[in-house]
Each structure stands twice: as structure tokens, then as C-alpha cells.
Amino acid sequence: AILSTLEAFSEAEPEAMVPHLRPLTVYLALEDKSSSEEQWVALKVCRILSATLPQLSAERRSSVDHRQLQSDLEALVKSQPSSGVHEAIRCLCLVVKYISG
């Protein structure tokens, strides 16, 4: 329930979520045999990141480990069901656009 709330909050006030991006990215690093609950969490985090990344200032961009984030998202693309793949690709595109350029 908390991730659904954070997702709604990130869509309504994405600037307020910016300081909390880094702790959320930890939930994108899934094991090969992740549960459906872990996959759901990763999907929600992708949606939160997608809503928030466009709001990152230049100073905040450097605080995000874009290499690890890209690596985790690429792994999600390979391992998620179709809905997760869509969200991971969308998030990966925004990482490239707003962070790693």
C-alpha cells in the first residue's frame, strides 16, 4: 500500500520525491528467481522514478548512480513479465534522457 501511495504522490508532486530516489533504486536489483511481490515492487519503483526523473536538477543528477540504475533496469527488461518490461524500458529511457545523457 505504501508504494501505491508513493506512486500517486510522485505523480502529483514529483519534486517532493526527488530526495528519496536513491533509496528506492535498491528495489530494482532483483535476484534471478524473484517473487511476484518483488517484481510488483520493482514495477512500482519504475513508475515512481519515471514520474520523478524529469524533475531532477543538475546537482541531484550526480547523486544518482546512473550506471547501476541502468544495469538494474536492463536486467529487469530481461526478467520481468510484459507489464514490467514496459515500465523498465520507459524508466531506462528517462534515465538516459535526464541523467546519463
Would you kindly provide a written description of the structure presented here, covering whatever features stand out?
The chain has 101 residues and is mainly alpha-helical. Helix 1 runs parallel beside helix 4 and helix 4 runs parallel beside helix 7. Helices cover 73% and strands 0% of the residues. The longest helix has 19 residues.
Offer a concise description of the structure.
This protein is mainly α and 101 residues long.
Features:
single chain, 101 residues, 7 helices
- What portion of residues belong to β-strands? under 5%
Mean pLDDT: 91
The secondary structure category is mainly alpha
Count of extended strands:
0
Number of helices: 7
- H/E element string? HHHHHHH
In helices, the fraction of residues equals over 70%
Distance between the termini: 33 Å
Outline type:
globular
Radius of gyration: 12 Å
Low-confidence stretches: none
User: What's the main sheet like?
Assistant: none
Topology at a glance:
Blueprint: H1 2-12, H2 14-17, H3 21-25, H4 36-52, H5 58-61, H6 66-79, H7 82-100
Helix pairs in contact: 1-4, 4-7, 6-7
